[in-house]
Specification:
- This protein is mainly alpha-helical.
- 62% of the residues lie in helices and 6% in strands.
- It has a two-stranded antiparallel ribbon with strand order 1-2.
- The structure holds zinc ion.
- Zinc ion binds next to helix 6.
- Residues 80, 82-83, 85, 115-116, 118-119 line the site of zinc ion (ZN).
Length: 143
């Protein structure tokens, strides 16, 4: 196992541990997060995050035009660009940045993919290629 593989193994393990912990303590964790959001500090932290997100959005070229979004979804056959599920099954798609805004991606037709809410949230700040690789790995592991 090389250094990169060891780091990935460690990251995966930590993720699994957190998933197990979260599953066992979901209610108290959600309550704690909810309470934190209502504190002054929690409120300011969220406000600052929203400001950063809006600033990134402005710098990335603003929002996609509605007609462009329709064209894009049609071009993908109204299927999620990542898991391939139909928009009619998984609820309205969200515009996902293939190269994330956090990594310099812009809001242009060639950088936006229609993504189901689950994929969009799971993808986070991974690139489209990285996230597709994660999904492919999961598929290979499935019995
Ligand atoms: Zn999806």
């Amino acid at each position: 196992m090389n250094k990169k593989e060891r780091a990935e193994e460690k990251k995966r393990k930590r993720g699994d541990q957190w998933k197990a912990y979260y599953a066992a303590h979901k209610e108290p964790i959600l309550n704690q997060q909810r309470e934190y959001r209502h504190t002054t500090r929690g409120h300011l932290v969220r406000k600052a995050a929203a400001r950063r997100r809006n600033a990134r959005m402005r710098l990335s070229g603003g929002a996609l035009k509605g007609s462009d979004w329709d064209l894009l979804r049609a071009a993908f056959g109204y299927k999620c660009a990542y898991c391939g599920r139909a928009e009619s099954e998984v609820g309205p798609f969200e515009p996902d940045h293939a190269t994330p805004v956090a990594r310099g991606g812009r809001t242009t037709l060639d950088n936006i993919r229609p993504a189901c809410p689950t994929c969009n949230q799971r993808k986070g700040d991974q690139s489209a290629e990285e996230f597709l690789e994660v999904l492919a790995k999961e598929r290979r592991l499935k019995p």
